[in-house]
Amino acid sequence: LLEASGRRAIFYPNFHCKLNFIEGFWCSAKYYARENCQHSLEGLQETIPMPL
């Protein structure tokens, strides 16, 4: 089905988060949120969309 539409599926080895792009991105987004929020619910709600 994927090949018929001209797309490819890439499967990563299990439990190898260093090989998966989204894991590195998610790590950076969490770090940004930790460093830039005011440690309140309102501050977190304002900060989370910024790195995404």
UniProtKB/TrEMBL annotation:
This is Tc1-like transposase DDE domain-containing protein. It comes from Choiromyces venosus 120613-1.
